[in-house]
Write a structure and sequence with these properties.
single chain; about 290 residues; alpha+beta; 12-stranded mixed beta sheet; 8 helices; 12 strands
Length: about 290
């Protein structure tokens, strides 16, 4: 086995894409990086991305690890735990740093334990999530209103809602630069859509991360005082149906600590694919 680090995103993805695409839903995040990184390797920030591939003795890709700073490390599915340890060793040797590492549950745990052993960092579980996939939609009944596109007049409201979303769902995320996030979506890096009921905006959703056969849906947010009326479900279903006109699949992530969202997405046609864990690393306390 050997581990390669790549500096050229186009050459890297030409190598690893066939491996990632065999489990497209599980790898939708890494596949979703491809177009933006091939257009601009610093699309996500000024620091160089980390692009690693582990190859078996026959030269076949066996694992992929990627980081687009300031975001955390993303690990692919890996069949052999020894490869996960070898990736951690190589990243440490290369002086890599990252706030988090996420991937399939067993893979992420092996990596976190190895990384802690190498670096002395203290790992803790930040979130436990589930990846869902849909090929068709079941629209909820008796929800009033309709989906419409985001417009410039919505910016102030959407900025406020996105601050609330990040505070609630993703505290500390580098994505929480809400002006950049909203303006990027408005400029065509994915999308933002709104659910409007009786001339009042009541929920928002969006998508990003195009893969060969799908899109990643998110965020989805309804203010607390408007929840329980089906707005988020109806908007997610409408957006998913719209996207499925262009691709075979839609993917989304849910927090396993939120049983409500998990049940809602199942009811509108999403099926669970796999669970992932996001580990955060803090400096070890001084003895």
């Amino acid at each position: 086995m050997r581990i390669e680090r790549h500096d050229d995103p186009a050459r890297f993805f030409a190598l690893v894409a066939p491996f990632l695409e065999r489990r497209e839903a599980e790898h939708n995040l890494q596949l979703g990086f491809r177009a933006r990184l091939e257009a601009d390797r610093h699309a996500y920030g000024p620091d160089d991305p980390l692009l690693y591939a582990a190859l078996d003795d026959a030269g076949n890709v066996a694992a992929v690890a990627t980081q687009t700073p300031p975001f955390g490390l993303v690990l692919s599915a890996v069949d052999d735990p020894a490869i996960v340890g070898a990736l951690a060793d190589r990243l440490a040797t290369d002086g890599a740093t990252f706030p988090t590492a996420g991937g399939p549950v067993a893979v992420a745990r092996v990596f976190a334990e190895r990384w802690a052993g190498i670096t002395g960092a203290a790992p803790s579980v930040q979130t436990e999530e589930r990846i869902y996939e849909a090929e068709a939609v079941v629209h909820p009944k008796d929800v009033t209103g309709a989906m419409r596109s985001y417009a410039a007049k919505d910016r102030s409201l959407v900025l406020d809602w996105m601050r609330e979303f990040f505070d609630e769902a993703l505290p500390g995320s580098p994505e929480a630069h809400v002006e950049r996030f909203v303006d990027g979506r408005a400029a065509g890096i994915g999308s933002l859509v709104l659910w409007e009921d009786d001339s009042r905006v009541v929920s928002l959703a969006g998508h990003a991360g195009e893969t060969p056969n799908g899109f990643r849906v998110g965020p989805v947010y309804t203010p607390p005082e408007l929840r329980g009326r089906g707005y988020g479900s109806a908007l997610t279903a409408a957006l998913t149906e719209h996207l499925l006109e262009r691709r075979r699949f839609c993917f989304l992530y849910t927090d396993l600590a939120n049983p409500t969202s998990n049940s809602i997405y199942r009811r509108i046609g999403y099926r669970a694919v796999t669970d992932i864990t996001l580990w955060r690393f803090a400096e070890a306390a001084a003895s």
